[in-house]
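Aim 2 progress update. The chain analyzed this quarter is reproduced below.
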Amino acid sequence: MSSGLIVPVNPGRLGVIIGKDGGNKRKLEEAFNVELSVDSEKAVVTVKPREGGTPYTVLKAKKALEAISLGFSVDDALLLADDAYDLEVIDLTEVSRNWEDLRRIKARIIGTEGRFKRTLEEQTGVRVVVGDKQVGLIGDYEQLRVAREALNRLIRGQTHQSVLKYLEREGFSLKKRRLELWEKWSA
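Predicted structure tokens:
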């Protein structure tokens, strides 16, 4: 492969990156103005800027590939083409003492039948993926701040009820801020 930014990806997610007849790969290339070369043997994707592309778009495409590798859909990863959105990854191995602790933390984040994860997404507007050892978040700065704090509270051992109250309070203020911005810019 020629020079470019080499991004290691989860071998099980290469098919998602490529998509049916290369459709997802084309979407990513167009959204980020880059050229993607997939090496399925080494499980890496080389990212090069197209004509008019910049190193910044290459780095944004790298984040999108990392998001897909973590478990996000291509549509969620395409949100990263917008400068307002970012990817944040929380490494659960840094906060867990052993494998059983890691399992318990992941179970708390997901909640019964996925209820806590769904509530976190609804209250903050972030997209959440819980991987084997990491939690991925895609959202804007304020959304990520609230979601990160909620997850940190949950990881530290606070009850779901107290974290949900925090989310309700902060989710209301996020919606209020969005409404104020909307009114400001539409007037």
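Strands lie at 5-8, 34-39, 44-49, 85-91, 127-130, 134-140. The radius of gyration is 18 Å. These observations will guide the mutagenesis experiments scheduled for the next reporting period.
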